Amino acid sequence: MASRISNDGLWRVTYGEPNGYTRDELIARQPEKFRVMLPGNPTPEQYTLVNISPYKVHQRLAESMRVGRFMLAADAAHICNPMGGLGLTGGIVDVGGLYDCLVGIYESKAGEEILNTYCAVPRAKYNDVVNPISSENLV
């Protein structure tokens, strides 16, 4: 994933690497990664590397999206790798679903038990759709 993050030519480039490399090894591998994956096959002389920030990608789902009156949604409920936009999309869907449930309760169209349904649906979608696709995006 490459995206411009400033008007003065600064870009963020995100890509996956296998586990086990040290920070120095990752830095040494970076020029070849950019050469292969970016348009024009740039060499280090053609850009300035401002920062490198390796991190371990996590795939996690909270045990419950509801504890009493407290509800979880989006990254508080589940996280996945940044490749593919599934975390953002899943978060938006969570908030929309939770909003609908809360409006239903407020307008007396549903009882508080609707929140249990809210909790079950995103968990199933994460397990059945998001997590498998997101995990595949890591490869």
Write the layout of secondary structure elements.
Layout: E1 2-4, E2 11-13, H1 23-37, E3 60-61, E4 66-67, E5 70-71, E6 78-79, H2 86-106, H3 114-137
Antiparallel strand pairs: 1-2, 3-6, 4-5
Helix pairs in contact: 2-3
Describe the structure.
The chain is mostly helical and 139 residues long. It is 43% helix and 10% strand. The chain has helices spanning 23-37, 86-106, 114-137, and strands at residues 2-4, 11-13, 60-61, 66-67, 70-71, 78-79. Helix 2 packs antiparallel against helix 3.
- Number of beta strands: 6
Secondary-structure element series? EEHEEEEHH
Mean pLDDT: 90
- Amino-to-carboxy terminus distance: 14 Å
The global form is elongated
Structural class given helices, strands, pairing? mainly alpha
- What fraction strand? 5-15%
C-alpha Rg (nearest Å): 20 Å
**Unreliable stretches:** none
Largest sheet: 2 strands, antiparallel
User: How many helices does DSSP assign?
Assistant: 3
Strand ordering within the main sheet:
1-2
Give the helix level as a range of percent: 40-55%
